[in-house]
Amino acid sequence: MSKDKKVMNELKSFIYTQLKKKYNKCLWPKSDCTENCIKAHSIQNGQILDQLASNNHVVMAVPTQNLNTGPEIEFQQVGRNLATTFTGLCQKHDSELFRPIDINEFDVSNQQQKFLIAYRSVLRELHTRIKAAIDLQTPYQKIVELGKCDPNNRDISELVTNTLANACDFYLYKQEYDKIYNTNSFTKIEHKCIRIERNCPLAVSSLFDPIKSIIGRKRLKPKLIVLNVFPQKQDTIILLSYLRDHQEDLRPYANEIINASVEDQLYLLSKTILRYCENFVISPQHFNLFSQEKIDTIKNFYLATLTLIDLDHNDKNLMLF
User: Fold this and answer.
1) Is the pLDDT of residue 98 over 90?
2) What are residue 40's DSSP bridge partners?
3) In angstroms, how far is CA 26 from the centroid of its own chain?
4) Do residues 175 and 50 lie in contact, with contact meaning Cβ atoms separated by under 8 Å?
5) Among residues 99, 133, 225, 292, which is most buried (max CB within 10 A)?
6) Tell me: the pLDDT tens digits for 151-168?
7) Residue 179's domain spans which residues?
8) Residue 174 resides in a domain
9) pLDDT exceeds cutoff 70 at 145
10) DSSP codes joined into one string, 32-47
C-alpha cells in the first residue's frame, strides 16, 4: 500500500470514529453540572412517540456521510427509545426540567408548558451545534497534522471558524432561555399555536432562521422560530415560538403558516420541515403509504436544501401529512 493511500485510510478511519463519538454535557441552566448524561428525548417518548410508533419504532431521516460522494439521507425505522435523543442532560435534570410537560397533557393556555416545549428544542439544538463544531474542528486539525490540508487555505479555515462561531452564537441565544427559566418569566416568549382537527402522523422539535436564510446575513444575533409539531389525541398541534424581543422580525414568517388555509398550512409546514429541520419522526404506518416517487422527491429536496436552503418548488409529493 502506498504511503498516500495509508494516510488517507488513517484519515477516513479517524473521521468516522469522531462522528460516532458522543458529546456528553448536561446543559442544566442553574449551575454547572458534571453528572453523566442520559439519552434524553427531545420529543416526548411517553405521550408523543407512543402515539406514532408501530412495534416500538418510528421513521426518521437518518443522515450518513460518504467521504467520497458527500452527504446522503435514508428514511429508516428507529427504535422509539433512541429516536430524537441527545446526550445533553443528566437523569436528574432532565426529569426536573420537563416534569410539567412529561406528566401532564398539553394545555394551550399554560405558558410554562409552552415555554418548556420550546426550551427542550433549544437545548437539543445547542447540543447538536456544539457536536457539529467538534466534528469539524477535530478532523480539520488531523488533516493539517497529516499534511493533507494547507492551514492557510481560507475557504476551509473559514468554514471551521464559522461553524465554531455558529455554536458560540447559539450558546448566547440559549442563555436567553436560561434566564427566562430561572426567573419564571415565561411570557417573554411569544407562542402561536394552531390546532387542526386531523390525526397527526409526525412530530417535530426543531428551530429555523428564516431571516438569515433569505437575506444571507452573517454573525447577526440569532433570531429563530422554534417549531414543534405533535399529535394530541385526534388533533394536530403546531406550536411556533420565539422571543418577544424578536417578534417584529419573526411574526411575518410565522403568519405565513398561521394565516393559510388548513391544506396550505400543512403543505407550507411540510416544506418548512424538510428545508430547515432534521429532528422529526413519522409514523411508520403513514410513511408506508408513500410511493417510491414521493420518497425520492422528499429525499432529493431534503438533500438539496442542505446547501441551497432557499430552494423552493411546488410538488405535491413534498406533503408530509
Assistant:
1) yes
2) 86
3) 18
4) no
5) 225
6) 666 666 777 778 888 899
7) 30-318
8) yes
9) no
10) ---SPEEEEESS-III
